[in-house]
Amino acid sequence: QVQLVESGGGLVQPGGSLTLSCAASGFTLDYYYIGWFRQAPGKDREGVSCISKSNGSTSYADSVKGRFTISRDNAKNIGYLRMENLRPDDTAVYYCHKYQGNFWGQGTQVTVSS
Fold this sequence. Notes:
Elements lengths: L2 E5 L2 E3 L5 E8 L8 E6 L6 E6 L6 E3 L7 E6 L4 E6 L8 E7 L4 E2 L3 E5 L2
Parallel strand pairs: 2-11
Antiparallel strand pairs: 1-3, 3-8, 4-5, 4-9, 5-6, 7-8, 9-10, 9-11
């Protein structure tokens, strides 16, 4: 069955970097649109970035453009979200999402604080 497992979250100082991973099983990652979403305490879940199937075109929320990079390793069937120049308002639980079928991972906590 379809599973998405995120990892790589943690505590980082403002200006720091993290790379989140999304290990996919039960399907081939590059055949589907995949997205990263986040949810901060008391706020709605919001889209951060997505990558298309096949040609891998990408899009980003304005708040993360130029700081975050979405990618995937087709051989490993793993998606990534590289986050740089992190800010306190990036603090949230980050989720990997397979649009077709509406599958979600369990989330990984990212906390940006000094």
